[in-house]
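Q: Start with the shorter request: fold the first protein.
A: Done. Sequence, then structure:
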Amino acid sequence: MKERHYQQYLARKRRKERGESLWNKWETAQLANAPVHECLVPENLFELGLGNLPFSRRLANGTIALAVFLLDVFCLGAKNALFQIIPPDVYNQRKKLWRGSEGLVPMAPACFRKLVEGGVAYARDLGFNPHPDYAEAERIFGNVVAAECPQEFVYGHDGKPLYVSGPNDTAEHVRTIIEQLQRRLGPGRFDYLMQSGQMPADLLDVDTRLV
């Protein structure tokens, strides 16, 4: 049994290295029909603009299929994403950390999917694609229907995209984001917030508001 699981792991690793899907049709179908375990979102997501959103399903063997989306609802959509199958105790440890740092609260699966996909669509409209691993992680949504969610989500901040730089963003990365927003929206139609020294010197006169 252990040898079979190890060989499956190696096969997945090889497919990922080749840029191929880690899923086959059987795995996707099994996951899509597994009971939803939990869908959690930061209670102040639309105040901070960024947070980790875990969506989990309980598999037949007792393990937890977990997808986590680092969602920027102000501008960039799915900045990161991951999918893992982990033991329940590992999942509970992670959930405890998330709840302590982000104040996670439950959300209906349909609304969770609508929230994440809406953030991705908002970012795409600005010219930003989701993290490369998003395509794998989103498969966890399976049979969940976003259209069943009556809730509406408004992205951006005060009616505009707001780019908030991360602590590890380089000046070149900041340049790429700012220039894309300028091309798509024009001057004065987006805001930004970044740490000292991150803004390229030649963009300091960008005609938009520093919040």
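Q: Next, the second protein, separately.
A: Sequence, then structure:
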Amino acid sequence: MFFHERLLLFWGVGLTLSLVTGGCSTTISRRAATPRATTVSIPSRSRTIEIGRASWYGAEHHGKITASGEAYNQYDLTAAHPSLPLGSRAVVTNLDNGKTVEVRINDRGPFVDGRVIDISRGAAQTIGLVKPGIARVRVKTIASHNSVGARSRRSRRQRSLTKRGCDSCESQW
């Protein structure tokens, strides 16, 4: 009987180890390939160029707080980008008609696969994007050394004053 118990214990340990190490193996993803935006980084000028699809957002988000802490104004020249620093600037060019607009990144998005940027209604009107809703664009960042940090600090300061109930302080900013 002692022999059978040891054999069973040995078999159990071997099975446990095989399950544990088998769980560490890699798996191959079977997700369908979705078209991704093309990103080209140009380190000499610290600019990034992306080519992809853009959309716009307007009235349904008007007045809501953005990722930067400011209220969204659909008529401002602003945009939502997934990774550019908040407060940075970019030039968006509609590749269908060649029109361009400079926007300030103040929010995160877009949350739809295949899109590189969501721009405000005001920016969309400037480049002729309102009627089609979606267009192929080029997004080129503008190197800005001090403006990004200053805008981030300002919005944090604005939020802290608002939280403390100093609504009159907002008019200074």
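Q: Describe the second briefly.
A: The domain at 38-143 is CATH 2.40.40.10 (Barwin-like endoglucanases). The chain is about 25% helix and 30% strand.
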